[in-house]
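Thread: quick sanity check before group meeting

JM: Hey all, I'm pulling together slides for Thursday and realized we never actually wrote out the predicted structure for the chain we discussed last week. Dropping the sequence here so it's in one place. If anyone has concerns about the input, flag it before I start.
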Amino acid sequence: MDAPPPLAKRALGTTGIDVSALGLGTVKLGRNEALKYPSNFEIPDEAAARALLDRAKSLGINLLDTAPAYGTSEARLGTLLAGQRQEWVIATKVGESFSNGAATYDFTPEHVQHSVKQSLQRIHTDYLDIVLIHSDGRDLEILDGCGTLDALRDLKSRGWIRAVGISHKTPAGANRAIELGCDVIMATLNLTTREESAVIATAGTAGCGVLVKKAFASGWGTIDSLRYAVTQPGVSSVVVGTINPDHLQDNVRAIVTVS
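JM (edit): ok, ran it. Output follows.
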């Protein structure tokens, strides 16, 4: 079957960054334990990972989502993207780490700076397009009491980061992030989880970029769920994690006419 036309780009709020309507989540490039997917998988080797990124690029995808909590994902991207940094929008996170089969959390300003430095080194870049707080569910406490957002904004002012925000767990956290003037939020949205539809629309109106996670409900959803998410008001890009280039192409084909 012929490849679909390349995806359109959308403005990520008022950041000045344009992102493809579908982004590629890269947790499966670096971690395959303690995840909520319906089946186990093997982490792809370098050839397979490179083929995945090549297919993504050919489909018009420019957004890659990673995190320190995604095992070796950042370091692998650093190798795989050599010589093509300018062609990608890279989103990573701070606050959550993963080792020895368990997640740990640290939202202090000191850890933010350390984490961002580590991400820059692993990805072999001198700037990150988007850095989000990787919330553990205490959205309001983190945003109002930990200094995490202020630390990210300081690094943004130094040119280390282009846009900052939060991958939140609650609608209240999303609303607070918008009130605080975050550049970007990362929200959960799919056909069975629609509680954040209103706040996503609010973010769009406020000029806050919106990345959507879990459009497939961690592997349990359908293409209709993806189509639903990508067409909701305020959504900039829907991030989908896959290591199968054909599945990625099917996802693009499913949304290219509505995105």
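AS: nice. The first strand starts at residue 9 and ends at 11. The mean pLDDT is 96.
JM: adding both to the slides.
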